[in-house]
Amino acid sequence: MNIFEIYLNKIKNLITKLNKNGEIEIPDLLNGINVDIPPPQLDFDISTNVAMFLSKLNKKPPLDLANQLCELIKNEDDNIDVISVAKPGFINIKFKALFWNNFLKEIINNNENFGVNLKEKKTKYLVEFVSANPTGPLHVGHCRGAILGDVISNILIFNRHHVTKEYYVNDYGNQIISFTKSVFFRIREILNNEKFPLDNDDLYPGDYLIEIAQNIISENKQLKFDDFNKIVQELTKLSVAESLKLIKLNLQNLGIVHNNFVSETDIVNNNEVEKVIEQLKKDQFVYEGKIEAPQ
């Protein structure tokens, strides 16, 4: 039961009835009428702007029209305990305790299905969120996007939509080269006691790289770490994989699990972007033009 939707429809039905009786003027569309939660300082359950919406058309002050509608609304509904008008013309409604008792019973009786939008057509959704660069663990700033994305996904899942939670792994580009180079220097530091070049601004200096480097060394004893250029591809894969382990652990601590981790490197290597552009050209959705310079 959506209380706001139910009372919005009740109010619309009431003013439509009044209009048919010649008591009030209404526009063709009633989309501007709202039923909302009133401010917390007011001891009411719902509030509507219907009087302000209709005042101009009826050439009446909103407060006068609100007072006129108040009694009519209450007479139409046995669930209303108190109804009053507030400036500049809001109508505030408080429900009886019995209404809330019945409402709670409905929640209990419907159990997991309460609140599901059964009217909405079920759709496939791809929700891509977090997608932080795989160059280390997540920081506090990533938490907001992670939680928002997961909540949006869970609301869609709750409403019986088909949802895929996706993490786009940005493992292609200069930042990944810098990250892999940083891991390489940490490995050299561990194996050969070479000092990590902290003065190099292109590198990632975080201590978390030491753990990544140690894991790579212990799990890949066959690799030689003498020449960066010879092992850059293999080391990049290993470094990103270790970084993703940290990221997934961070997400699991928040109770978040993605369905897919999609690699940008795979997309580039498989020419997926070119394929999409070619398809767009084939379907005549692409044209060449010139963007005007900003004024």
Measured by DSSP, the beta-strand proportion falls in 5-15%
Overall, the morphology is elongated
Strand order of the largest sheet: 1-2-4-3
Helix content: 40-55%
- CATH-defined superfamily of the largest domain: Arginyl tRNA synthetase N-terminal domain
N-to-C CA distance:
52 Å
CATH fold-level name of the largest domain: Gyrase A, domain 2
Give me the Rg, rounded. Answer: 30 Å
Ranges where pLDDT stays below 50 over 5 or more residues in a row are none
User: What is the strand tally?
Assistant: 7
Structural class: alpha/beta
Q: What this model shows, in words?
A:
- This protein has 295 residues and is of the alpha/beta class.
- The protein folds into 3 domains: 3-99, Gyrase A, domain 2 (2-Layer Sandwich), CATH 3.30.1360.70; 120-169, no CATH class; 174-269, no CATH class.
- 50% of the residues lie in helices and 12% in strands.
- The chain has 10 helices and 7 strands.
- The chain has helices at residues 3-20, 50-58, 62-75, 97-110, 140-158, 174-192, 208-219, 228-253, 264-269, 272-282, and strands spanning 35-36, 46-48, 80-86, 90-95, 124-128, 162-169, 260-263.
- It has a 4-stranded antiparallel beta sheet with strand order 1-2-4-3. A 3-stranded parallel beta sheet has the order 5-6-7.
- Helix 6 (174-192) packs across helix 7 (208-219), helix 6 crosses helix 8 (228-253) and helix 7 packs across helix 8.
- The longest helix is centred in the last third of the chain and has 26 residues, at 228-253.
Topology:
Layout: H1 3-20, E1 35-36, E2 46-48, H2 50-58, H3 62-75, E3 80-86, E4 90-95, H4 97-110, E5 124-128, H5 140-158, E6 162-169, H6 174-192, H7 208-219, H8 228-253, E7 260-263, H9 264-269, H10 272-282
Parallel strand pairs: 5-6, 6-7
Antiparallel strand pairs: 1-2, 2-4, 3-4
